[in-house]
Structure to design on (70 residues):
């Protein structure tokens, strides 16, 4: 029982750490988005991973409207 609780806590900590690291480097969390959409907008179809990733990149870096050197 104690080992099961420790394994469960370690798994939760690992998921939290992974999510934190992804957010720190700018990689969006698709699973969290899909869960949110299913919970709060069940009538809408979630974006595909590719569409979600593209939308998050454009939101972060400005997409085609960005003014910059690159």
């Amino acid at each position: 029982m104690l080992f099961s609780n420790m394994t469960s806590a370690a798994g939760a900590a690992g998921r939290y750490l992974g999510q934190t690291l992804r957010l720190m480097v700018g990689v969006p969390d698709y699973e969290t988005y899909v869960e949110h959409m299913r919970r709060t907008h069940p009538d809408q179809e979630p974006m595909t991973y590719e569409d979600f990733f593209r939308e998050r990149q454009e939101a972060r870096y400005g997409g085609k409207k960005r003014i910059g050197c690159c």
